[in-house]
Amino acid sequence: MDIEMIVMKLVVNGGNARSTAIEALRAAKAGDFKKADELMEEADTILKEAHEIQTEMIQNELNGNKVEVGLLMVHAQDHLMNAMTVMDLCKEMIDILRK
């Protein structure tokens, strides 16, 4: 798979994980904690896929297969880190709403 496809997978998975976590938070706000939990689990699965891609890229670089860091790569990493932050915040907010 070429680097553009890999980077786009990071962008898509990061965006999907973030959107799903926000959807889970909205479900929790509506009092549907079962749906919120299911959506957070789905978001976590999506995020893990993106993280596996990132880990593979890091391992490849450590093995001497460096990837050019361009704007697209920075954008992909931004999506991934944003998704991770939103996930953490949504987990905390759902726990607060649950009480």
From TrEMBL:
Taxonomy of the source species: Bacteria, Bacillati, Bacillota, Clostridia, Lachnospirales
Cofactor: Mg(2+)
Pfam families per UniProt: PTS_IIA
Annotated binding of Mg(2+), by residue: D78
Cited PANTHER family: PTS SYSTEM N,N'-DIACETYLCHITOBIOSE-SPECIFIC EIIA COMPONENT
Catalytic residues as annotated in Swiss-Prot or TrEMBL: H75
CC cofactor note: Binds 1 Mg(2+) ion per trimer.
Record-given protein name: PTS cellobiose transporter subunit IIA
GO molecular function ontology, one term from the record: transferase activity
